[in-house]
Amino acid sequence: MGGFNQAALLEAIRRGGGTVTRADLARVTGLSPQTVTNAVRRLLETGLVAEESVQRRAGAGPGRPGTTLDIVPDSKYAIGVHLDPATVVVVLLDLGGTVVATRSAPAPASEKPDDVLDVVAREVGAIVATSGVDVARVLGVGLATPGPIDRQRGLVLDPPHLTRWHDVPLRDEVARRTGFPTLLDKDVLAVAAAICWYPETGRPTDAAVVYVGTGVAMAVISGGEIVRGVSGNAGEAGHLSVGRPFGPCSCGREGCLGGVLSTGAILTNAGARGIHLAAATDEEVSPSLRADHAVDELGVLAGAGDAQALGFLNDMGEALGSAVVTVCQLLDLDTVVPSGPVWERLGPWLVPGLRRVLDGSPLPGHHAVRVLPTDQGINVAAVGAACLMLDDALTPKTTGLLLRV
Amino acid sequence: MGGFNQAALLEAIRRGGGTVTRADLARVTGLSPQTVTNAVRRLLETGLVAEESVQRRAGAGPGRPGTTLDIVPDSKYAIGVHLDPATVVVVLLDLGGTVVATRSAPAPASEKPDDVLDVVAREVGAIVATSGVDVARVLGVGLATPGPIDRQRGLVLDPPHLTRWHDVPLRDEVARRTGFPTLLDKDVLAVAAAICWYPETGRPTDAAVVYVGTGVAMAVISGGEIVRGVSGNAGEAGHLSVGRPFGPCSCGREGCLGGVLSTGAILTNAGARGIHLAAATDEEVSPSLRADHAVDELGVLAGAGDAQALGFLNDMGEALGSAVVTVCQLLDLDTVVPSGPVWERLGPWLVPGLRRVLDGSPLPGHHAVRVLPTDQGINVAAVGAACLMLDDALTPKTTGLLLRV
């Protein structure tokens, strides 16, 4: 189990943020000091980890001498790609999780898989070339795509917002065109991976990660693990109930979260409430851009104190709260992390309604549910995809320990 | 990690059902043959495991010789207790999971914690005494109780159906009165433990376990693990939406699962539909018994082909299906396991509606959702509580491997 031990130690060193000694590692992993010493020697040889004498560190007080270990951020990199129906976002992360470069390009209007693959390959090549990072240090590419996917075979099946896509072998095609090892995951699960990765979000162990964009999705983190589901397609939240009629959903009902929180639903529902948005009648642009512009306008109205817009946003926040409460009750979660391009623009006016419903609802175990922001902004899915690649290459996996007799 | 290896091997031997050789164990665990040999020797010494020469086994074909390993069922036992608001059920399981004894007693009408504890201690003592099992072979007591609980401190907080209970230290009191190590878990999570334990249910890895009794609850199994939640109180399903108005819920809404599938809701809704149930006007018994008798009557009507009763049950099955679909979409589950005292009596008439909604709904990843029965009947929560005790004593835990820097 040398590989497992080594990966476990690397993860512990990363989480320690430069404060961890070999003795700490032996304590937290339960491995023998000798095993730790041997594994750390191998990590030092690979250059992933470096050591520093405690005495040399600024602010170190008196005490027993020791040597702390930290990862070497520029020893390895990972690329993350978010394939949104409208945009291709590419980020380059170092081993410490710092975003060292970001690129984005409009998705080809044709929506043809081949054209999209060309854009992905071009942008991946460009981000490595322009950043000056040694190709040999790039671990690989993490892809975040709309579902449903076949995770095992690396296929994108037939996403509702990419109507020309059917069983596209995205993982293998990106690997072939870029030359990098590639993995594929669903967009909202990549977002959850970013939430789990960064200490800034407090690494919630039991959380609902809400992503609001062209559609609405919700990933669940349970016991510190992302819930992927039996086929890797967890996260469909469009038909969660918001507890009362709101706006029409594709399923024909009136009280689904998808009928509240998506760019299209926002455009439709604003019109039904008599909120005038210029984007609604803009025939010059595509329906998806029209809906996206409507979100911008609604944010401007709310920022200007428009009472109708504020009331609408309050109701949307409460509707989200109602859906989230149901999930918190079922899975005993204590954290909600909203994210996504719609949330980035409208979040400040959605939080109060969300907060009010969370506070006013019976939740299991008598603990509060906190609403956490994410610091990764609109690139969170691409960042998460890169985190998945780092995780895949470096994080301990217990799979080999699980018994499948 | 000797303890971990030993427990992992015991679990693999149990799951193998008497077919596993040392070579198989080395293969599935990734441990070295020498480590397996040493750990198995210790298991043989404890008497938990016995070996059998393959040549001696009936029906063994030709092939390389070997020695298979199996657990010794009567080497250890666990007691399971289900504390239902109406009944105390106690079971005794052997290490192989066979229920060797069952007892039940009415819960004291006073509902006072002290009186309930007296009944539990008396029944636990009686099941050991009358079964003739050596007390030294009893690993301990697993308690399944209504939530919310404080799992860490072993408290039952304030269950809605046990109005006189408030922060009752049930775990420690049962341990004190019986002398056995005791653990406490929420009733529906104990049911899920039973589903995970027995090979007969195919050990679903991603399932919704529905329990219908005085109330309705749903435990989720995700990636082979029971979702417990941040405070051990997962499973609250009463406010999952059934997609349309049905019957009144305690929250004031009309479309909650709790307003459809609970004994009280069934009594109320049957009346509202003009289905005459004699129990409805029986003033001789308590409201909870009245509702329970109504379930019996409804089953009799359905069995006799009463069209109104069948229509009502069909609608209830569809309502359950609607709630289950939402959860399957969110968590990408492929299995539903309904259980509990109401399901035991009405299940056959609820399945078609449930099945129809599952088949007619868009589910992630294009896979079907199967409806599995449980073989444990109305004692499933008590059996599950005993399984939890067996698991706690004997199953590998990776906790020691997880890093908490």
The biggest beta sheet of chain A is recorded as:
5 strands, mixed
- Compressed to H and E, one letter per element, the order of chain A equals HEHHEEEEEHEEEHEHEEEHHHEHEH
Find the biggest chain interface. Answer: A-B, 63 and 63 residues
Distance between the termini of chain A: 19 Å
What's the number of extended β-strand segments of chain A?
A: 15
> Which oligomerization state do the chains in this entry correspond to?
homodimer
Shape of chain A: globular
Unreliable stretches of chain A (pLDDT < 50, length at least 5) are 398-405
Structural class from helices and strands of chain A? alpha/beta
SS element count, helices of chain A: 11
Helical coverage of chain A, percent range: 40-55%
Spatial strand sequence of the major β-sheet of chain A: 6-5-4-7-10
Q: Which radius of gyration of chain A do the C-alpha atoms yield?
A: 23 Å
User: What fraction strand of chain A?
Assistant: 15-25%
Look at the structure and give the mean pLDDT of chain A: 89
Describe the model.
The structure is a homodimer of 405-residue chains. The first copy, chain A, has 11 helices and 15 strands. With 405 residues, chain A is an alpha/beta fold. In chain A, strands 6-5-4-7-10 form a 5-stranded mixed beta sheet. In chain A, β4 and β5 form a beta hairpin. The longest helix of chain A has 25 residues. The radius of gyration of chain A is 23 Å and the shape is globular. At the A-B interface, α1, α2, β8, β12 and α9 of A face α1, α2, β8, β12 and α9 of B.
